[in-house]
Design a protein that fits this description.
The protein has about 425 residues and is α/β, with parallel strands linked by helices. The chain is built from 16 helices and 8 strands. The strands form 2 sheets. A 6-stranded parallel sheet has the order 1-8-5-4-2-3, with helices on both faces. It has a two-stranded antiparallel sheet with strand order 6-7. The mean pLDDT is about 95.
Length: about 425
């Protein structure tokens, strides 16, 4: 007898407050949430723009106390998250504010989780790498104030971490770690370097396309109980709306956002697109490019990206996902040709002539070249000899690969990674 299929999907999203000057309402929002003292998890690089002190002042003027944590790793590691958790456990706080990019917001999510429910971080990391423990209940209020347009972490149920000892990246995923509010102010993205904007924006595009082209929710097995329904449930009519709009924004505004920090229309729209994509993939999920991205980011640390600290070699997350996306979507084309062509048209901003398996890869490559992305995994320090290890690492991301729109095995991943050595 065939396994019963899912017939239900759930749309959950963090409340969103968006607009120029929105950060000025942070104190009011914290009071509304009943917070008396927060742990402000802040990217120390924002001191250069006096943003940390500004936010502290906004919070304190509302009569709310502030404890500060700034030990943010550019890409969170188990060690950096454990440090944040230790500070949270010792602090007398009943709420959190995350000020920064996806790494900062993910750090705040994990610190909040351990502060509220205790245990070791690895207890909650997705199986089979970690224990896969589910948080038993809600966390303290967390207001996420993003300063980049990329991860969409302000709207998602996921926190990502690097485990150097295992040479891979993985995550914690549960509905309870989603922020209580996403407070998105386009003016905060003005100072983001062009290279960071490029990588973050390509992450937006990949989130949106992967979720739009994920396995439909009603093609997945029905969970035994509602509690067993995963956060990543598969594409559905509502998530598709968010994802399609984010794809369109990436095609129309990313190159402009990279070209000028003063183009607030472009940078603000990409911030909104990041949150929209976060809502889309936070429900539908991501799959092959993200599964490949974790070993790409974790196995070698030799790449120096423009716009990031020259003291730290690493592969920014947006670049680690986008480099395999052309080959991945060439592979998935036959699962839903019309969706692939629709995504290609939105990225290109025009009707695709002679549509086929290369239409979406070509649109992605054109955008990558336009914003100065690396051409493939060879540019990140990998060669043919590294492909078996990359395949092995990607296969460990089973929670992601099950969301691919067609079955994907070791030979498929090997082909995708080999095609991704150089996209042009």
């Amino acid at each position: 007898m065939s396994e019963p299929l899912e017939s239900i999907f759930t749309i959950e999203a963090a409340p969103l407050k968006f607009g120029a000057g929105a950060v000025e309402e942070l104190g009011w929002e914290l009071k509304r949430l009943g917070v008396s003292r927060v742990l402000l998890v802040a990217d120390p690089a924002l001191h250069a723009f006096k943003l940390v002190d500004r936010v502290i002042g906004i919070i304190q003027r509302s009569g709310i106390g502030v404890t500060r944590f700034e030990g943010i790793a550019v890409e969170p590691t188990l060690d950096s998250l454990e440090l944040a958790a230790e500070v949270a456990l010792s602090a007398e706080v009943d709420g959190f504010v995350a000020l920064g990019g996806g790494s900062t917001i993910d750090t705040a999510k994990v610190a909040n989780l351990i502060k509220r429910h205790g245990g070791a971080i690895m207890d909650y990391v997705n199986a089979p790498i970690g224990g896969g423990r589910k948080p038993p209940g809600p966390l303290f209020p967390l207001v996420a104030v993003p300063t980049t347009s990329g991860s969409g972490s302000e709207a998602t149920t996921v926190a990502i971490l690097d485990i150097p000892d295992l040479k891979l990246k993985t995550g914690i995923s549960h509905r309870h770690i989603r922020p209580s509010l996403a407070l998105v102010d386009p003016e905060l993205a003005r100072t983001t370097p062009a290279g960071v904007t490029a990588s973050a924006g390509l992450d937006v595009v990949c989130h949106a396309v992967e979720s739009y082209i994920s396995k439909p929710f009603d093609a997945r097995p029905r969970p035994a109980t509602p509690d067993d329904r995963p956060p990543y449930q598969g594409s559905n009519p509502v998530a598709d709306l968010w994802s399609l709009r984010a794809i369109e924004f990436g095609g129309r505004y990313l190159a402009r956002a990279v070209a000028s920090g003063d183009d607030l229309e472009a940078r603000g729209t990409m911030m909104l697109g990041a949150t929209m994509a976060g809502i889309g993939f936070g429900t539908a999920g991501v799959h092959i490019p993200h599964a490949c991205a974790y070993p790409i980011a974790g196995l070698k640390h030799v790449f120096h990206a423009e716009g990031y600290s020259r003291d730290h070699a690493f592969v920014p997350h947006g670049y680690s996902v986008i480099v395999t996306s052309p080959a991945a979507f060439r592979f998935t084309f036959d699962s839903a040709p019309e969706k692939h062509i629709r995504a290609a048209e939105l990225l290109a901003g025009r009707r695709v002539e002679d549509p086929g398996p290369d239409s979406l890869p070509q649109a992605l490559i054109a955008l990558m070249r336009q914003v100065g992305a690396p051409s493939g995994i060879a540019a990140l320090g990998y060669g043919e000899a590294d492909i078996p290890a990359l395949v092995e690492g990607a296969l460990k991301q089973r929670r992601l690969l099950v969301g691919a729109p067609k079955p994907v095995g070791p030979a498929d991943l090997e082909r995708i990674l080999r095609e991704s050595l150089a996209n042009w």
